[in-house]
Amino acid sequence: MEITNVSEYEAIAKEKLPKMVYDYYASGAEDQWTLQENRNAFSRILFRPRILIDVSKIDLTTTVLGFKISIPIMIAPTARQKMAHPEGEYATARAASAAGTIMILSSRATSSVEEVASTGPGIRFFQLYVYKERNVVAQLVKRAERAGFKAIALTVDNPRLGRREADIKNRFTLPPFLTLKNFEGLDLGKMDKADDSGLASYVAGQVDPTLSWKVVKWLQTITSLPILVKGVLTAEDARIAVQAGAAGIIVSNHGARQLDYVPATITALEEVVKAAQGRVPVFLDGGVRRGTDVFKALALGASGVFIGRPVVFSLAAEGETGVRKVLSMLREDFELTMALSGCRSLKEITRQHIVTDWDTQRSSRP
Questions:
Q1: Which of 108, 124, 181, 254 is catalytic?
Q2: Which residues contact 26 (CB under 8 A, 6 or more apart)?
Q3: 189-217, pLDDT tens digit by residue?
Q4: What is the pTM of this model?
């Protein structure tokens, strides 16, 4: 069967992967309302295409933190990719590099920053959780710097782990043949079976619930790398992130894995963009499955999007080839959407090219 869109990889991954692994990648928190909403919200945004515009040449390139990339579609940090495929993060890194785009490596990857760097050239950022033991955090940041990573994506939406009921039911643990490579040689304790989700117990012991905005300032004292704040959903926090010196904001609800019944990221995006007032770039993470989704995010003010689950599902299905296909399909789909909307470059994509259900709600108020 020929794969014609990104979403088709999920069914293949479900067939190929052990239930515990598939559920870990696929599930969200509690009722999984936000998990569905991350997708559904895109369907409430419609196009206002412009016609009779010469679209024979279309430029998809953009820059992110000064780095030129070929498409505004980047790879979000997803942990434990070797559970999906033996080559894991190596395959993803090579696919991102071949597509001319950025990969964010999860600090909880099953390949280390050095191993990913060894796959060859590429623009890579490092995702970071801040642990109680700040010395561990400093070591991780230094390792990422030495390995040539260009920015830190600080995840800020998990002072505690969300309730992921599939992981609790499955007693999720990292398969015994895998390790969280970035923590080898660091004193973080081992993750093992527990009465709850093994992952929840592990994280509960290491994540720092006292975390505050001061951590952004602290990170700036230990690294000169730009810091993206990942997990912002409100205007209030967007303003604080800018004031704290963030180099960019990633609008994210952690793949709907933390607090259920938060809005879809595409719904929260415009509020955050307006609050940032153009002082830093704002990116969208969550629910992107088609080029039309990418266009809608850019029309609402995003500087680019990140994809997570499509990467691990395509990785499970076809390894590096699958991830390359996902990026290629999204690229082609996005370019077609631009052409049919009358846009020849990213800067030509404007708010006037879409209408949302919240626009119509506002206009119908007395």
A1: 254
A2: 10, 14, 166, 309
A3: 554 444 444 444 554 577 788 999 999 99
A4: 0.94
